[in-house]
Amino acid sequence: MWFISSCLFLTAQAGDDWQKQETIHLKNIRQVTQDYVRAGEGYFSPDAGKIIFQAEEKGDNPFYQMFVMDMQTGAARRVSPGVGKTTCGYFHPTKDKILFASSHLDPDAKKHYEDEFKARAAEKLAKVRRRYVWDFDVHMEIFESNPDGSGLKRLTDSKGYDAEGSYSADGKQIVFCSNRTGDLELFIMDADGKNARQLTKAPGCYNGGPFFSPDGKRVIFRSDRKKKDHLQLFVINVDGSGEKALTDDENWVFWAPYWHKDNKHIIYTAADHSNPMMRPNYDLYWMNIETGAKTRLTFAPGADVLPVFSPDYTRLMWTSNRDGRSPTQLYMADFAMPASGKR
């Protein structure tokens, strides 16, 4: 899920050596998606042969739909119904299934298209980009399907927003964000949608973007409980105990954390929001959650967000408009772990 308190089109970095800086940890950077108005938030299949991602097709729907791409051929197909909005696709780790959230059951889904196109036209005319805000669509529900989109099955059926789901490593559970209680909290349910239980308890705040640790013991997530829209990173045990803030700087926004296989490092997105006269530059960072040590990984003039590892942790995939002007697309690179993270 995209959740940024300022727009993704950013000011350029000073200097012209940012490519050299990135080669320390990211080798062979290449663009993965091409033929979309915009694309992003991609995740690998368990065998790394496919990726699932959200993208806007050229046509009458200005919102994201879900796609699966074969990494050998580059062929991709839409796997969501094609109506409304989708977000947060994910592969089941042990079964031939995928997960995503969709608003296609909204009876007024198509009525929202015209408003979005009008807003884009006004934005273009005024030459001012809108502030990006995630709308927590009350018609968002979580669905399971086959990787080709067939066999669609609804997993959540509560009043309000249900999205941002991902599986545990054994495929038995799903952690997700829901406002079924009136607040945007994290829940864990069985992979078939049953036995949902609340994980976080932070009334009046957003808690989202959760992922189970590889060992299944903890969940990493983001929350704006310290300052509205200024996300910080948190970790919590799967039984709801041991919640801990990993960042504590209200001048920055931290989000999109994703686990490394060693269960003690994460990769995430962050930007300095301290100067209201400047657009923040979102970049990727690496952190040891035990010591707090951090390493910056990207330095491009544009936004670098939503990083994920390949199943063997040798590659990194993320969403970017590398030049700060182009629409966002998926990128991939070979990943070299920072020296502080090597054993």
How would you concisely characterize the structure shown here?
The protein is mainly beta and 343 residues long. Helix content is 6%, strand content 38%. The chain has 2 helices and 24 strands.
The total number of structural domains is 1
What is the alpha-carbon Rg in Å? 19 Å
Number of strands: 24
Number of helices: 2
Q: Which fold name fills CATH's third level, the topology? A: Neuraminidase
Taken as a percent bin, the fraction of beta residues is: 35-45%
Report the sheet with the most strands, covering strand number, pairing sense and barrel closure: 4 strands, antiparallel
| Helix content bin | under 10%
Low-confidence stretches: 1-14
Order of helical and strand elements: HEEEEEEEHEEEEEEEEEEEEEEEEE
User: Biggest sheet, strands in spatial order?
Assistant: 1-24-23-22
CATH superfamily: TolB, C-terminal domain
Broad structural category: mainly beta
Q: Give the overall form.
A: globular
**CATH architectural type:** 6 Propeller
CATH class group: Mainly Beta
| Chain-averaged pLDDT | 93
- Distance, first to last CA: 32 Å
